[in-house]
Amino acid sequence: MSKVEPTIDTSQWVDEYSDMLYNYANTRVNDHELALDLVQDTFVSALKGLKNFKGKSTVKTWLFSILKRKIIDHWRKQESRKTRPMSALGTAEESGEERVLERQNQGTVSQIEVDYDNKELREAIMGCIQELPERWKGIIIDKLVEEKKSEEVCKEHEITPSNLWVIVHRAKVQLRECLTIKWFNS
To answer: Is there a domain that residue 132 lies in?
Structure first.
């Protein structure tokens, strides 16, 4: 008696997950086109590897794990480059936050002001993170923004706990200096 594999409906994946995957990728690479490419590569890899999907996690979790690998691979490639491409500089307009703000057009005036201040602070923080060394960016976003556990960050970025501690410490010093200039003194 042969075992029947459950079928997975992939037809709705783009509609269901592309915005989430794009926003996740864009916050880590700060490049609209690159984020779109990474999401597309994620879907292609998922479709190619569908036979290996065991269903032990949700499709969403599985797609995010593929995307995270793609982002880590991207940063490893960037580390080996001598120069950064112009597209890596990105712009605020490419951040995707305009779409989020358009959907968030409700609330009291005071709440809108708080949201605006938070948006400005978030932009200042992300701007400062973009000034960190290439290798540190994904690590800092995972550890300080996403608040992942140290063990998970170490495993994903293939670093030791002591290396993580040094990177986080040095990055916090740089971020504090940057935010003092960009946020507190403005």
So the answer is: yes
Counted domains in the chain: 2
Q: Which domain holds residue 18?
A: 1-87
pLDDT at residue 38, rounded to an integer:
92
CB 125 within 8 A of CB 168: no
Cα dihedral sign for 138, 120, 94, 83?
negative
Give the type of residue at 130.
Q
CA-closest candidate to residue 53, choices 93, 1, 110, 7 = 7
Q: What is the pLDDT of residue 101?
A: 47
- At 72, list the tokens: 């880590």
How many angstroms separate the CA atoms of 12 and 16, rounded? Answer: 6
Is 93 a domain residue? no
Which ranges of the chain have pLDDT less than 50? 1-5, 82-101, 103-110, 112-113, 116
pTM of the model: 0.45
Q: How far is CA 22 from CA 55, 66, 132, 176, in A?
A: 23, 13, 22, 28
Q: Is residue 33 part of a domain?
A: yes
Q: Is residue 64 within 8 Å of residue 21, measured between CB atoms?
A: yes
Tens digit of each residue's pLDDT (9 = 90 or more) over 156-177 = 899 999 999 999 899 989 988 8
